[in-house]
Task: structure prediction
Amino acid sequence: MTKIGLVGAPRSGKTTVFGAITAATVDTKYKATQANLSSVKVQDDRIDALSQLYSTKKKTYATVSFMDIPGSTSGSTFDRTTLNNMRNVDALCQVLRAFSSDSHAQSPNFLQELLDFEAEIILADLELVERRITTIKKERGDIRHLELLQKLYETLENSHPLRMLSLNESEKKELSCYQFLSSKPVLLVINVDEDGIASQCPNEIAVEAKKRGLGTIVLSAEIEMDIARMPQDDQKEFLESLGLLKSAKDRFIQSAFALLDLVSMITAGEDECRAWPIQRDSKAVHAAGKIHSDIERGFIRAEVIACHDLLEQGSESKCRTSGLLRVEGKNYLVQDGDVINFRFNV
Ligand SMILES: Nc1nc2c(ncn2[C@@H]2O[C@H](COP(=O)(O)OP(=O)(O)OP(=O)(O)O)[C@@H](O)[C@H]2O)c(=O)[nH]1
Ligand SMILES: [Mg+2]
Result:
């Protein structure tokens, strides 16, 4: 399951954003010491439509899990628990305070928060790389690996995140065990005052985000947390009155999927209609492994119909006769919304 960690300066609104996305009940009065955890379903109209078509017993949406990570301070180094929590997520979401409130002594300085956080994650990675280099030298370990780490060291020492370093597939694989922070995708949440809720990302943040390849989303966490807790029907009306088309959760997930380059593969039948988040351009054989390793191992072929074709035609057999059902091999690159039936040997 995709895991996203909410991080940011003290009192920037991490826990409130967590509440706005997950609708969980949270306490924002005191400084939290424990991480909040919750997973949310990714609303998908295609799953609803397909489950009607097949009169399905069970619908399964993709899920994303969120962790509100406390203790990520600005200006000082992270403690061990915070570091471990951050290393274990697929993407970091940095909450930037752009709201003003009486409980905050200083006015918002979100650009500085962004730069401070980047400096901190670069420093954390630099310390890790330094320690590994020292150990490998002492133990006269793998020289090739040492050279790769030295390349990372240079990048970090020049204050660049590892995200900016271009690495080939085998180098990426070799480094995946380290879970470097500055190589993770980052989504910036600009937490604005209520009257800025429908506004664009502030220009200075948009510029820096573009330079670094980061995603951005504008929220007003406090009011959006209140909306998330309303009954579904009231939510829509409220969002519209604020000039929004979608809830914080839906906007957030859309941005996170785009940032992580995730698409949805679908399996559909009478028993279950289900969305599977997979990396864009995954080969069919690897996508099959998401469902079960046996399917990947015994892969014969994939029978593929684009979801919109299936819904338009109304049945698999109609798609088959009109040539819209394709038979694809192991190396087929799965597209968003492909409804796939895998054939495999057991
Ligand atoms: N006006 C306004 N206040 C907000 C908003 N989001 C959060 N706050 C307030 O800011 C304070 C801090 O919010 P939290 O969500 O606890 O922030 P945090 O980053 O989790 O804080 P720590 O865990 O203590 O670092 C609380 O008093 C919130 O009510 C917002 O969108 N607008
Ligand atoms: Mg908090």
